[in-house]
Structure prediction request, 402 residues.
Amino acid sequence: MRWDRATIAGVSAIPEHGGDRFASSTATLLRAALRHGPLSRRALSRLVGMSGAAVTRHTAVLLEIGLLQEKQSELHGRAGRPHVPLAVNPQACSVIGIHLAHEFGTIAVADLCGQIIDQRRIPYQGTDPAAIVDAVAAKAAEWVRPSTRAVGVATGGWVDVDAGSLVAHPSLGWQSVPLRDLVARHIPLPVYVDNHTRGLMHAEELFGDVDPDESVLYLFVGNVVDAAVRTGRAVHRGPRSGAGAIAHLPVGDPDIGCASGHRGCFEATVSDQAWAHRVAATSFWDLLAAAKAGDATARALFVERARIVGRAAALLFDLVNPDLLIVAELGAADIPECLDAIRTEVGERSVVCSAPERSVRAGGVPTSHILGSSAASVALAEVYSDPLGALADAASHRLGRN
Ligand SMILES: [Zn+2]
Prediction:
């Protein structure tokens, strides 16, 4: 089946009027099936508070366009059609994620359930940001399949979602890079861009165990540091999507200067490579390997960094007062003492966090996929917010109408 707007508008169950409400209801049902499926129509109806007739009408469309599929039921033969469980069809749609890090880009393909099917690192050539993004996008174009519906581009720093551009990535030294246009030149599909920590927030909420009604503060610590905040079922971005810039929080070592001329900044103190070179005169990856192999000195250095991360986390916790604080940091992912250290700092310094062992946890996205997953989730969040619109947009782009 082809997915231009006319085809989707022609699906018999879509009303001519009230399209926004229809889009919102199909999105709600698809997300419920993703999170709780396989589920019968009757169970879906109870779960989302929609009438049985409305669930039947909306799921008919999602089945017709393939995003939902009927699963074999143990109730088969005994029950009628309302009992046939429905689940998201992971193969119905895939997206490409492009993550831009220090030194390399990551291209990933993810299915509709957020599983990374394939990923690859592309080392950067040269130093011109536009040329680097152009080269990575050209490689990504080779990965477009018939099922590919969208591209997500993610990176650290300040990413303006509406403008589709990277405003500034201070530690890379990039400014005003038109990410969306550079990628769209190579790939005739909708291209969505965002900060990678907001991408990870989407991944946790869509494919992890974050309750959609919970407020969440997400803290990312790598070669950059960023934060994302989710309240009221939405990720907060603010004007020009500038929210989450925490690089210059003065919680770091006062002896360390940052590129902006301050002292004691968070990112300058804890960012992966700079920190490893300073504390151990080695690469971050060698220090992490030593810590994971049980080297006591390396582990102690990771715990020391985690305490600084915990200081920033406590401060941000009191600002947001979230139900949940998620920390994505390679120490916290692999070394239990690091997460303990972050929880201890939050417990001691935060005024409002009463149970850090419950409300502070490590990121749920596997570290081997974290960069590709952040980028793919930027695109998948768009698909799940308006499934029919996203498929129609993909078809329009392929036909050259955008
Ligand atoms: Zn600074």
Remarks:
- The chain has a mean pLDDT of 92.
